[in-house]
Amino acid sequence: MEQDTKNHDNFRASWTTRLGREIYSLGWNLLCGLRLLVFRGSAIRRMAVSYDQLFLLVSLYIVTVFVASYYLVNDPQFDVYGFGVIGAEFLAALLVGYLMAKISGDRDKLLLFLVVSYCVLPFFYLIVEVLFPLLPSTYSSEGYIGLAVWSLAISLFICYIVVGRRILWALMLLGVWFLASLPGIEFQTSFWYEGYGDYEKSAEIKEIDTERVFYSQPALLDDALNRVKPGKRGVTDLFFVGFGAYASQDVFMKEIGHIQQAVDTKLGTSERSLALINHRDTLETLPLASSTNLGIVLKQLGKLMNPDEDVLFLYLTSHGSRDHDLAVDMWPLKLNDVSPDDLKVKLDDAGIRWRIILVSACYSGGFIKPLMDEYSLILTASAADKTSFGCSNANEFTYFGEALFKDMGEGAYRFIPGFQEAIERIAVREKDEKLEPSEPQLYVSDLMLEKLQRLEAEMAQYPAERFANRCCSGECLDVDTVCNN
User: Which of 392, 289, 331, 78 is nearest to 202 (CA)?
Assistant: First the structure.
């Protein structure tokens, strides 16, 4: 019995010692990985290479992705397919390591390359996915190019060192590694996706007849457009289009409802406004906020407007991407996002000259350059590399929409002072809430400034009925309801 106890104690002490050595080696390997990120090739010679270390490094990478990606999305929902992307990355590294072993005639190169790769990957993931987005102006084209060049340079450097400093073989292996890694590039490495709360579980959503929804669009568009009166010759008429494109959060539908009400009653568009909404509550009554429907509406309004006189007021609200696309979501329908270039083409094709375009979305400053011309005013909720705030089901507006339209004051409305005051209110609110400034962007041409002065003067002369509350089917509605009239 005493001998068994002694053997057990010796085994436990030996296992503990071995585990301690492996943990120490893991820390050392990670330090070498950091050195590799600044092109210190000597770090590879100092690494502890073993199957135990490979297991620990892969496990650490999985934990890093699991934890970090959880904090990168709102309402995180577990995505088991994350293991598939991790597996694809491992297979890509395995293929390159196998080729290195064949080229060099050294079987140990396979294990060496795998260990080296996973010494770097946890840090690489944190830099690319976590730290890089926090840096100022990283989402400019220069920032993307710089990150891509650095990423490729690190990968080429690792291949170059491991394969024995043969540049041609290193370049070939880099190409293989890139092609084999495409699944991980196409499908972002993450164990979490942005959830919609109980949205996807809703019985109403699961019962959506997608074919019926699509075939109902022509009738809904006709109904909405038939309510819009044409512009009057000799009068600068203002036409409003609201585009609430993200169905999975109520705030965008609510915001369009409030803003349409405010613009109708304050700016005199009650006979010349309509809304495109993505939301389960409006599927039977309003056209979808889709790229196609937006193009149809703009083209028809272009026929109703007098191009030399009338002005379009277009308000788009949704989530924005770092690529400066406006998200268009109506789960389970698959709809195309709207880019600044798409929007410009639609406006140009419609023949709409005078444009007031407001975009409430993260990174929406990216809309300004593609849309700017001598006939436009463009106001965005954020700079091209900044996020905006207020996208919550609990809110009636985004911060941007609330600052602009919740309280438009009494008396005649003036666009530029009103927009500038809203920008100031947003800055104060973000400072009070200790948020990173969204930096709303305003562009207006000199020609458009003159046009706005004429528009403001003529709006003051609109007849009273133009400022009437909106009604549907003869029944006036409150501001929480969206309709076309």
Answer: 331
The CA–CA distances, whole Å, from 194 to 75, 222, 243 equal 6, 35, 22
Tell me the residue ranges of DSSP E strands in 270-321. Answer: 273-277, 311-317
Window from 79-83, 182-186, 405-409 with minimum mean pLDDT: 182-186
Burial (CB count within 10 angstroms: exposed 0-12, middle 13-18, buried 19+), residue 211: exposed
Beta-carbon count within 10 A of 116 CB: 25
Cis peptide preceding 332, ω within 30 of 0: yes
Residues 6+ apart with CB under 8 A from 407: none
29 Cβ contact partners less than 8 Å away, ≥ 6 residues apart? 47, 48, 53, 57, 115, 119
The predicted model gives 439-459 an average pLDDT of 91
Task: Tell me the percentage of the chain whose pLDDT exceeds 70.
Answer: 85
Q: By CB neighbour count within 10 A (0-12 exposed, 13-18 middle, 19+ buried), where does 414 fall?
A: middle
Residue 273 identity (one-letter amino acid) = S
Mean pLDDT over all residues of the chain?
A: 83
Residue 340 in tokens? 């600044």
> Domain 209-476's class?
alpha beta
Give the whole-angstrom CA distance, residue 157 versus residue 37.
9
- CA end-to-end span of the chain, whole Å? 92
Gap between the Cα atoms of 455 and 191, Å rounded? 52
pTM above 0.70, yes or no: no
Q: How far is CA 102 from CA 12, 105, 254, 421, in A?
A: 40, 5, 62, 67
Domain ranges of the chain: 2-194, 209-476
CB atoms within 10 A of CB 332: 9
Decide: 324 and 362 in contact? Cβ < 8 Å.
Answer: no
Q: 79-107: b or e for each residue (b if 16 or more CB lie within 10 Å)?
A: beebeebbebbbebbebbbebbbeebeee
Alpha-carbon distance of 274 to 287, in angstroms, equals 10
pLDDT in tens, 207-240: 677 788 888 889 999 999 999 999 888 889 999 9
**Residue 116 near residue 46, CB atoms below 8 Å:** no
Give the pair of three-digit tokens for residue 63: 């934990």
CA-to-CA separations, 459 to 14, 111, 236, 304, 452, in angstroms, rounded: 87, 74, 8, 18, 10
